[in-house]
Amino acid sequence: MKPDHGRAPRVAVIGAGPAGLTAAYTLAKDGIPVTVLEADPQYAGGIARTVEYKGFRFDIGGHPFFSKSKEIEDLWTELLPEDMLERPRLSRILYRGKLYSYPLNAAEALWKLGFSESLLSALSYLRACMRRVPNAQNLEDWASNQFGERLFRKFFKTYAEKMWGVDCKEICAASAKTLVQAFRYPRYGPGMMWAAAAARVQELGGQVRMGHRVSACHWDEGTRQWTVVCGPGSKTLTADHVVSSEPLGELVRSIAPPFSSESLKAADGLRYRELLTVALIARGRSDLADNWICIHDPEIRAGRVQNFSSWSPYMVPDDAHSCYGLEYFCFEGDEIWTMPDGELIELARRELGRTGLARPETVVDGCVVRQPKACPFYDRDCAAHVSTIRGEIERRYPQLHPVGRNGMHRCNNQDHAMMTGILAARNIAAERQVYDLWSVNRDAEYHEARGDSK
User: Fold this and answer.
1) Higher model confidence: residue 180 or residue 268?
2) Contact 199, 219 (CB under 8 A)
3) Over 70: is that where the pLDDT of 447 sits?
């Protein structure tokens, strides 16, 4: 893998999010020259950054720090030894003015729905038990099997279709998740972790170039080197390896010589969901214990409300105010995405009042953050598209390493994104493909694909 055995490989890392910075930090600790190229001129962290507005800090989507991997937990402690808080996890569902446990507790739901609705829901569940959809592949069939069609429509359909923007029949069946009772969280939000990681990379001799968007990557088969075009003035950087956390479809379209028409078509088929956060500053300290609340009420357009002081009290600079983040799932270019900031703040203010979590007249200020490509979309063709692209990368561009959530088009948590960065760095250092990054999964079971770890 290394063209010149008299020197260490030079590595360009695209993106200063959890995967990219973890890869860069791992490489820098091994003495491998690394340059991180980040499009954002200000914030490290990618989707896991922390935005600051007038002293108030807020997270884009909510990022609890918890992993089944001791290596990842130890890395967080290494980067922020004094600033990781232990936080209790509480999140609930808001439906028709009542709060329900999350994940849904069927007995509690039936109790709160009242006698008539509970009876109908129980009968619906019994029918589902007798008429289970075999090998359920979409969310509607999976949730109906688990809870019955009536509870599915009340507690799953509205929220899932808000989140993904399509009918539940088009959404792949949900995977079971382990939900923890507590998690760690940086004192001033997740961006604090990634600012620390960027600083550590530079202390070890690496470079982190903010405001350097990558526009093209040219692969020379003869020299087995990359030329990366980036930043103001289209500067060029020569590297032996490229580690990329940019969206997989965008990466494919930036490569020369170009991918095959089949892979380009697959790249065009990869879909994403955008996230728009309206942070509202309100008078009075929130007494809400929830970190976030999922809004399943069809009459409210927001999908979730984040309560930032419950993530960390240091996110809100004084005891006289609260800060809530109303999250709107959308597609880039649709009505919500293109709505002017002032109108969005007014919409969110009204909807916060309708949730009953805070009175709209207490809202004194607001801020809008748009996050493109917040979540890779899993439709029925997604796996085939990714497989096509992955196969061509392995055949034609062996020194290109997709990592992370968008880089691999997988809705993994940040600890899994970090592990892909670590394994990519280890493959580069070993000069061979010791680890299969694609085996990193949601259960944090990280498997070697070839050879051994020595």
Assistant:
1) 268
2) no
3) no
